Amino acid sequence: MRNSILILGAALFMFAACTNAPSTNVEQAEKPQATQTSLDKKEEAAQGYDIGSKAIDFSLKNANKAEGQAEVTSLKDFEEAKGFIIIFTCNHCPYSVAYEDRIIDLDKKYAPLGYPVIAINPNDPIQYPTDDFDAMTVRAKEKGFTFPYIFDETQEIAKAYGATRTPHVFILEKNEAGNIVQFIGAIDNSTYEPEDADEKHVEEAVDALLKGDDVKVKKVKAIGCSIKWRA
Hints:
The chain is an alpha+beta fold. The chain has helices at residues 2-16, 41-46, 94-110, 133-143, 156-161, 201-211; strands at 60-62, 72-73, 83-88, 117-121, 149-151, 165-166, 168-175, 178-185, 225-226.
């Protein structure tokens, strides 16, 4: 009986890392299985956008202005961009923390090629004070973010895009019709061991778009913490 209680307690503790108990310690979250290459019905139904959807613009407060970024960020500000790597992420989620360096690398690699990263924090700071705007500013400076880190305070953009997890990626291609969604899902298939990632979904998608090719894998199930919606 005592062993059963201990096992149950451990399971509840790992689950809490992405639900109720704020944490920046990656090891406190249960490591996910390899990212799936398809969405389950519940996840797919939650999507606001699908492949081919025209994404709306936004004007959101930027926590990374200390790094030379604008105080408010909009897609229209990037006149020379060919598209965007939009990543819904946050401070507290262990999955997001595990991907921070890779997100920085994505921006360094693809922003000069016309696909900058824009990171959006959609979480309710009432539930998670570590995700409030001031904490975002601190985190951006600590990590040396090279990209805008913006706050979706009303959560309207996350709902419009259909984001459900942190991190959750939407790759947009800019053309005459607007900013068109070309990929939705995960960054790669190995959250905690980057060297083990053999399916680099975002890189493969952006590389295809830069070549003028069709994106082969357009949707991948996002693995991470659930977005903390306002009550």
